[in-house]
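Hi Q.,

Before the meeting this afternoon, I wanted you to have the fructose -6-phosphate prediction in hand. No need to reply - just skim if you have a minute. The sequence and ligand are here:
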Amino acid sequence: MKIQIFDDHTDLAFDVADMLCRQIARKPDSVICFAAGTTPLSAYNIFTTLVETDAVDCRHITLIGLDEWVGIPPENTGSCAWFLRRTLIKPLNLSADRFRLFDGMSVDLDSECALMDEYVSGCGGIDLMVVGIGMNGHIGFNEPGGSPVLRSHVTPLNDVTSTVGQKYFTEKTELTKGITLGLGHLQDAANVILMASGENKARIMRETLEGEISIDVPASIVRKHRNSHVLMDQAAASLLSRRD
Ligand code: F6R
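Predicted structure with the ligand bound:
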């Protein structure tokens, strides 16, 4: 695991955008799994701008959406699908055969999970996962106390996730379940970037990096990954005992 601390959120976002460009230059048909959320938004915006200005060829990449709220349609501006379409799929002009997102409205969520797992295997696995961290240490919707080996699955949401998740929606929304890639996918991915930004992530980053590696803090599993990169701004790193 490599840890990097940046002065601020903007520096962090530029670095992640640059890493994405380098990944695609190295492997033009990269399979990249992207989280939604507040943390990666600037990085994605910088990335899509760089793609345009530096003519990065994204025609052969495959995009995988990390997770989705169950029961929330893709037209809802709080859905992960809406976020990924607006910030990446549309600006990168990805055709329908170049991405897969979970359908949180599916009447058969088990099949939805099986289809995602088949899709990931059919692509030859994930080259890079770009993930954030929840206030409770979740990655995707892999909530504390879940399983470190699961692949795609549906999970009840922890109270913290349902409460904090309201920030994505324009009106109060019932959030009870999520559908998500699993930590099994994370462990198998060739590379992982975990981003954390802001003072409100400082406590969980300390637990993630300095506490026990435990499913009670799902993000701590990145410490076991052979090629994980944890990028934080100073605020998110502020409670670490060592910051040099
Ligand atoms: C979203 C996702 C979540 C978020 C996490 C942090 O697709 O997978 O696990 O990464 O909840 O969210 P933000 O970045 O909004 O603080």
